[in-house]
Amino acid sequence: MTTEAWTGTYESLPLGAAESCSQVIDGAAIDAFAQAIQSFNPLHMDGDWARANTQFPDRIAHGVMTAALMSKPMVQFCERFRVRTALLSSSAKYRKPVVAGDTITTTVRLAEKIDAKRLIRFAIESKNQRGEVVLTGEAVEKAL
Q1: Per-residue pLDDT tens for 36-57?
Q2: Which of 23, 53, 121, 124 has a CA-to-CA distance to 13 between 20 and 30 Å?
Q3: For residue 20, what is the enclosing H or E element?
Q4: DSSP 8-state symbol, 15
Protein backbone atom coordinates (compact mmCIF):
# COMPACT_ATOMS: atom_id res chain seq x y z
CA MET A 1 0.00 0.00 0.00
CA THR A 2 1.35 3.41 -0.98
CA THR A 3 0.63 6.40 1.23
CA GLU A 4 0.56 9.76 -0.50
CA ALA A 5 3.03 12.28 0.93
CA TRP A 6 1.26 15.22 2.47
CA THR A 7 3.23 18.42 2.28
CA GLY A 8 1.28 20.74 4.57
CA THR A 9 2.76 21.97 7.81
CA TYR A 10 1.46 22.80 11.26
CA GLU A 11 2.87 26.30 10.83
CA SER A 12 0.78 26.90 7.69
CA LEU A 13 -2.55 26.12 9.35
CA PRO A 14 -4.60 29.34 9.42
CA LEU A 15 -6.46 30.26 12.60
CA GLY A 16 -10.15 30.72 11.92
CA ALA A 17 -10.23 28.36 8.95
CA ALA A 18 -13.32 26.15 8.98
CA GLU A 19 -14.82 23.09 7.35
CA SER A 20 -18.46 21.95 7.33
CA CYS A 21 -20.33 18.76 6.47
CA SER A 22 -24.03 17.87 6.47
CA GLN A 23 -25.69 14.53 7.06
CA VAL A 24 -29.27 13.31 7.32
CA ILE A 25 -29.82 11.42 10.55
CA ASP A 26 -32.63 9.07 9.57
CA GLY A 27 -33.92 5.92 11.18
CA ALA A 28 -31.50 3.70 9.26
CA ALA A 29 -28.52 5.75 10.46
CA ILE A 30 -29.73 5.57 14.07
CA ASP A 31 -30.29 1.81 13.74
CA ALA A 32 -26.78 1.28 12.34
CA PHE A 33 -25.22 3.37 15.12
CA ALA A 34 -27.22 1.55 17.80
CA GLN A 35 -26.04 -1.77 16.38
CA ALA A 36 -22.41 -0.60 16.30
CA ILE A 37 -22.42 0.48 19.96
CA GLN A 38 -25.00 -2.07 21.18
CA SER A 39 -27.27 0.58 22.76
CA PHE A 40 -30.97 -0.05 22.22
CA ASN A 41 -32.79 2.37 24.53
CA PRO A 42 -36.36 2.77 23.22
CA LEU A 43 -35.82 6.55 23.15
CA HIS A 44 -33.49 5.87 20.21
CA MET A 45 -35.21 2.84 18.70
CA ASP A 46 -38.99 3.31 18.93
CA GLY A 47 -40.77 6.44 17.70
CA ASP A 48 -44.11 5.36 19.23
CA TRP A 49 -42.45 4.87 22.62
CA ALA A 50 -40.70 8.27 22.38
CA ARG A 51 -43.97 10.06 21.54
CA ALA A 52 -45.90 8.30 24.33
CA ASN A 53 -43.28 8.67 27.07
CA THR A 54 -41.29 11.83 26.33
CA GLN A 55 -41.68 15.33 24.97
CA PHE A 56 -39.97 14.29 21.72
CA PRO A 57 -41.93 13.98 18.44
CA ASP A 58 -40.02 10.86 17.37
CA ARG A 59 -37.01 8.83 18.38
CA ILE A 60 -33.80 10.76 18.81
CA ALA A 61 -30.20 10.04 17.88
CA HIS A 62 -27.72 8.95 20.52
CA GLY A 63 -25.78 11.98 21.76
CA VAL A 64 -22.47 10.36 20.92
CA MET A 65 -23.73 9.81 17.37
CA THR A 66 -24.18 13.56 17.01
CA ALA A 67 -20.73 14.15 18.51
CA ALA A 68 -19.20 11.65 16.09
CA LEU A 69 -20.28 13.87 13.20
CA MET A 70 -17.29 16.12 14.00
CA SER A 71 -14.97 13.51 12.55
CA LYS A 72 -15.70 14.04 8.86
CA PRO A 73 -15.16 17.82 8.75
CA MET A 74 -11.97 17.47 10.82
CA VAL A 75 -10.64 14.90 8.34
CA GLN A 76 -11.64 17.12 5.42
CA PHE A 77 -9.92 20.11 7.09
CA CYS A 78 -6.68 18.13 7.40
CA GLU A 79 -6.99 16.87 3.82
CA ARG A 80 -7.48 20.42 2.54
CA PHE A 81 -4.36 21.65 4.33
CA ARG A 82 -2.51 18.34 3.71
CA VAL A 83 -1.59 17.86 7.38
CA ARG A 84 -1.79 14.58 9.29
CA THR A 85 -3.08 14.65 12.86
CA ALA A 86 -4.07 12.36 15.70
CA LEU A 87 -7.11 13.08 17.87
CA LEU A 88 -6.20 13.52 21.54
CA SER A 89 -9.49 14.62 23.08
CA SER A 90 -12.98 15.83 22.35
CA SER A 91 -15.87 17.17 24.37
CA ALA A 92 -19.44 18.00 23.53
CA LYS A 93 -22.50 19.63 25.04
CA TYR A 94 -25.83 18.47 23.70
CA ARG A 95 -27.99 21.59 23.27
CA LYS A 96 -31.06 20.13 21.56
CA PRO A 97 -32.09 16.62 20.57
CA VAL A 98 -31.47 15.34 17.07
CA VAL A 99 -34.77 13.87 15.93
CA ALA A 100 -34.94 11.13 13.30
CA GLY A 101 -35.07 12.87 9.92
CA ASP A 102 -33.02 15.93 10.93
CA THR A 103 -30.21 17.13 8.69
CA ILE A 104 -27.22 18.08 10.83
CA THR A 105 -24.50 20.42 9.62
CA THR A 106 -21.32 20.27 11.68
CA THR A 107 -18.71 23.01 11.42
CA VAL A 108 -15.21 22.77 12.84
CA ARG A 109 -13.13 25.95 13.14
CA LEU A 110 -9.44 26.13 13.98
CA ALA A 111 -9.63 28.14 17.20
CA GLU A 112 -6.14 27.76 18.64
CA LYS A 113 -2.65 26.50 17.91
CA ILE A 114 -0.45 25.47 20.82
CA ASP A 115 3.02 25.75 19.34
CA ALA A 116 5.03 24.16 22.16
CA LYS A 117 3.23 20.83 21.61
CA ARG A 118 2.07 21.28 17.99
CA LEU A 119 -1.57 20.95 19.07
CA ILE A 120 -4.57 22.34 17.27
CA ARG A 121 -7.90 23.02 18.97
CA PHE A 122 -11.09 23.03 16.95
CA ALA A 123 -14.29 24.74 18.09
CA ILE A 124 -17.25 22.63 16.99
CA GLU A 125 -20.86 23.56 16.34
CA SER A 126 -23.65 21.42 14.90
CA LYS A 127 -26.98 22.82 13.70
CA ASN A 128 -30.16 21.20 12.43
CA GLN A 129 -31.97 22.17 9.24
CA ARG A 130 -33.83 24.93 11.14
CA GLY A 131 -30.54 26.58 12.15
CA GLU A 132 -30.89 25.51 15.79
CA VAL A 133 -27.65 24.65 17.57
CA VAL A 134 -27.83 21.00 18.66
CA LEU A 135 -24.22 20.56 19.83
CA THR A 136 -21.23 22.67 20.80
CA GLY A 137 -17.82 21.35 21.71
CA GLU A 138 -14.16 21.16 20.96
CA ALA A 139 -11.51 18.73 19.83
CA VAL A 140 -7.75 18.75 20.25
CA GLU A 141 -5.46 17.10 17.75
CA LYS A 142 -1.71 16.69 17.55
CA ALA A 143 -0.07 17.63 14.27
CA LEU A 144 2.17 14.76 13.21
Answers
A1: 999 999 999 999 999 999 999 9
A2: 23
A3: strand 18-25
A4: T
| Sequence-ordered list of residues with C-beta below 8 angstroms from that of 113, at least 6 positions apart, any chain | 10, 13, 15, 119, 120, 121
Domain presence at residue 135: yes
Strand 119-127 to strand 102-114: parallel, antiparallel, or no bridges (unpaired)? antiparallel
Q: Does 7 fall in a domain? A: no
The C-alpha atoms of residue 89 and residue 119 are separated, in whole angstroms, by 11
Sign of CA dihedral 127, 129, 131, 132: negative
Full residue range of the structural domain in which residue 81 is found: 15-26+62-143
Q: What is the pTM of this model?
A: 0.93
Q: How many domains does the chain have?
A: 1
Residue 130, domain CATH: 3.10.129.10
What's 28-48 look like in SS3? HHHHHHHHHHCCCCHHHHCHH
**Segment 72-101, tens digit of pLDDT:** 999 999 999 999 999 999 999 999 999 999
> Is there a domain that residue 99 lies in?
yes
